[in-house]
Amino acid sequence: MALKEKEASERIHLIIIIALVTIVVLGALALWRIMMDRRRLNERNHDLYATIQQMLEKQNEAEQALEETPETALSGNQQLYQRIVRLMKEQKPYTDSNMNRDSMAQLLGTNYNLLADAIRECANGQSIGDFIEDWRLRHAAQLLAETDHSIGLIIEMSGFVTRSHFNTLFRERFKMTPSEYRKATK
């Protein structure tokens, strides 16, 4: 009888050891899978960030080329757009959350219709509101990449009124959250 109890006890110990080894192996596999998924996500974010940087560089090159073109070679809308881009770069009026189409037209000494036509013609059909939001998003992306400011502060510094609106626009434009963007830049 003692021999049977000893064999039963050894079987139980063996079953427990096999169960523990199985749990450890499954845990290691799950951890490995998590690490591989995280690595792939980081690579995807890095590739996406590189694509975004190329897109922003092309946009900046197009604006630079327009700025360097003599005014006499430009149409009236292109000349006005050149002034708009110069204003945006030098004075950064988009950082004011109250900036809108009317205040922008007033800053440039023109009317809303002329401003809308120039932006639509020279900025790939964008509306004035989209144009201003684009500058705000580029500013926010730059701050995310170059500073350690909180996202809330960056939202405020970029002229956005609400965090939810900023997050929605940022995700649409950059295909990642502001936090993911910041991580991809590091």
Please, could you describe this protein's structure?
The protein is mainly α. The chain has 8 helices and no strands. The chain has helices spanning 2-68, 76-91, 101-108, 112-122, 128-146, 151-157, 163-174, 178-185. α1 (2-68) crosses α8 (178-185), α2 (76-91) crosses α4 (112-122) and α3 packs across α4 (112-122). The longest helix is centred in the N-terminal third of the chain and has 67 residues, at 2-68. It is rod-shaped, with a radius of gyration of 28 Å. The N and C termini lie far apart (68 Å). The model has no long low-confidence stretch (mean pLDDT 85).
Which key features would you list for this structure?
single chain; 80% helix; 186 residues; 8 helices; mainly alpha; rod-shaped
SSE topology:
Elements: H1 2-68, H2 76-91, H3 101-108, H4 112-122, H5 128-146, H6 151-157, H7 163-174, H8 178-185
Uncertain runs:
none
Principal-axes shape call? rod-shaped
The profile of the biggest β sheet is: none
Number of strands: 0
Subunit arrangement of the protein: single chain
Q: Separation of termini?
A: 68 Å
Mean pLDDT: 85
Structural class: mainly alpha
Helix content: over 70%
Q: Count every helix, treating DSSP H or I runs of 4 or more residues as helices.
A: 8
Give the topology string: H per helix, E per strand. Answer: HHHHHHHH
Strand content: under 5%
As a whole number of angstroms, the C-alpha radius of gyration is: 28 Å
